[in-house]
Design a protein that fits this description.
- The chain is an alpha+beta fold.
- About 40% of the residues lie in helices and about 20% in strands.
- The radius of gyration is 21 Å and the shape is elongated.
- Bound molecules: zinc ion (2 copies).
- One zinc ion binds next to helix 6.
C-alpha cells in the first residue's frame, strides 16, 4: 500500500488520509480531553479549546454534539451517556496500555505515551480485559490517574496467567518488585512508604504464617494480611 503522507498534530496525532478514520480518531482525542479535564474539575469549553491540539476542534466538537456525545450547559461541556461510555473505554485502554508497556518493556514515559495513544484506538474489548487481568487489574496508570474499572475487575478469572499478582501469592523465598499499592487509606500508604514499601522496591516473602514477614532491602517487616492484600507485585 502506498504510504500516505503523515501529518503530525501535537505529540501523537497522525492523519491516515481516510476521512472516516480521521474523524473517529480526532473525536476520540477530544473525548479523552473532556474526560481528563473533568478529572481536574474543569469542564468549560474555552479551556478545552485552549488545550486541544486540533485546529479544527471547534468544528469537530459541533459534530460530537450533533452525534449526542456531549451537550453544552452554558459554557460547560457535559458528557451524555454514549460519550461517557466511549470516553471511559478510551481512557481505560490508554491507561492500561501505559502500564502494560512500562511493565513489559520498561519503556520510557515518552515512548509509552506515544504508543498508548495508538493502542487506545485499536484494542478490542476482549483484549483489553485480558490486558487488565494480566496486569492484576491495576487501579491507576503510571501517572497515578485512575483506570476506569472493567467487567473483568469484578470477576474471578483463571484463564489469563497474570504478570502482576497479589503479594500474598508470592511463594516463600520468592521475590517480587512492587508494581502498585491499592491502599484503603492514605495514612496506610504513608506508613508503607516510610517503611520503604513503595512501587519499584523489591520484596522477598520470608514467612506467611502465622503472619506475613517480608524482607525489604536489609530490613524484615511484619505486616498484617490486611495490608499485604493491598500490594501487587511482579515476580523477579
Ligand atoms: Zn497515565
Ligand atoms: Zn480488570
Amino acid at each position: 500500500m502506498e504510504k500516505e503522507p503523515e501529518m503530525k498534530r501535537g505529540r501523537h496525532r497522525r492523519m491516515w488520509g481516510r476521512a472516516g478514520e480521521i474523524e473517529e480518531d480526532r473525536i476520540d482525542e477530544l473525548l479523552e480531553l473532556i474526560w481528563t479535564l473533568r478529572e481536574e474539575g474543569v469542564s468549560d469549553l474555552d479551556r478545552l479549546l485552549e488545550m486541544a491540539q486540533d485546529t479544527e476542534a471547534r468544528f469537530i466538537l459541533r459534530l460530537m454534539v450533533r452525534d449526542g456525545l456531549f451537550e453544552m450547559e452554558g459554557n460547560r461541556m457535559v458528557l451524555k451517556e454514549r460519550g461517557e461510555e466511549k470516553a471511559r473505554e478510551l481512557i481505560r485502554r490508554h491507561r492500561l496500555t501505559e502500564r502494560l508497556l512500562s511493565e513489559l518493556f520498561e519503556m520510557s514515559e515518552e515512548e509509552v505515551e506515544e504508543e498508548a495513544c495508538k493502542f487506545e484506538h485499536i484494542l478490542s474489548p476482549g483484549v483489553t480485559e485480558n490486558v487488565c487481568t494480566f496486569l492484576g487489574h491495576p487501579p491507576t496508570c503510571i501517572h497515578g490517574k485512575p483506570i476506569p474499572r472493567g467487567e473483568c475487575c469484578a470477576r474471578f478469572r483463571k484463564d489469563v496467567k497474570p504478570l502482576v499478582i497479589p503479594l500474598e501469592e508470592l511463594g516463600l523465598g520468592e521475590k517480587g518488585r512492587i508494581v502498585f499499592i491499592a491502599p484503603k487509606s492514605h495514612q496506610r500508604l504513608d506508613r508503607l512508604s516510610a517503611l520503604g514499601v513503595v512501587p519499584g522496591s523489591i520484596v522477598r516473602m520470608h514467612q506467611k504464617n502465622p503472619s506475613y514477614v517480608l524482607q525489604v532491602g536489609e530490613t524484615s517487616l511484619a505486616l498484617d494480611s490486611d495490608v499485604v492484600k493491598d500490594i501487587y507485585v511482579k515476580k523477579v
